[in-house]
Description:
By secondary structure, the chain is α/β, with parallel strands linked by helices. The protein has two domains: 3-109, 3-Layer(aba) Sandwich (Rossmann fold); 127-210, Thrombin, subunit H, CATH 2.40.10. The protein has helices spanning 12-23, 37-44, 59-68, 101-109, 127-130; strands at residues 3-8, 27-32, 49-53, 76-81, 93-96, 138-147, 153-162, 166-170, 180-187, 190-202, 205-210. It has a six-stranded antiparallel β-barrel with strand order 6-7-8-11-10-9. Strand 1 (3-8), helix 1 (12-23) and strand 2 form a beta-alpha-beta unit. The protein is elongated and about 60 Å long. The N and C termini lie far apart (48 Å).
Amino acid sequence: MLNHAIILEKSLLSANIYRAILESHNVMAETVTNMEDIDVLLREANFRYIVVGEESFDETRWKALVKRNPEIAAIKKIFVTMSKDLEKINGFDLITRPFSTQEFVNICLSRGGNVVAKKNSLAPAPEQVNNRRIFERKSFNTKMFLVDEKQRPVIYLWGRDISLGGLYLENDIKFKRGSLLLISFIYSGKNINVTAQVVRSDKNGVGVRFLGLPDGFTF
């Protein structure tokens, strides 16, 4: 049986990342942007997890929500913050952005012990990816960030095999084909921010196509 989660997050890109990670681990997620929408969802299904983004949280409204829905006390609650100084939110487990997929999985899904996420291989990307390559590929392996609409990092992962057409992202997230990602990384000492679209996936990660590179970007 699948578990269910509620994601309270104003940032659509952030919410999509959280949902993709959870659904990759057999947790179906519903996304809302307003705290009051949680009332409706709690009447429709049983939820095991609630993930709350910092910018969507209001302590007064949250206390009122909990008072109306005492069953929230038994639901695991995760508070996603961008502040390294935040130490505690009553009733929540904290995780600070940016984090790895493994860190998010562990704090969300474990109850006394780590969940073992799939380890990504450094083997070459599948042949069906390479056979259709149009742009020259450059050997490349660096830390990359998926960011939100304000260019703030959400999670980090590893990218490789870059070309002017796209690159390969190693991860165990089952991003759907056609998903849009905002990616930030350092290349040749320059900070690159680019929109990319997932075009294929395999057990080790996803291939993405750039939808627009900064002017003058070359290898």
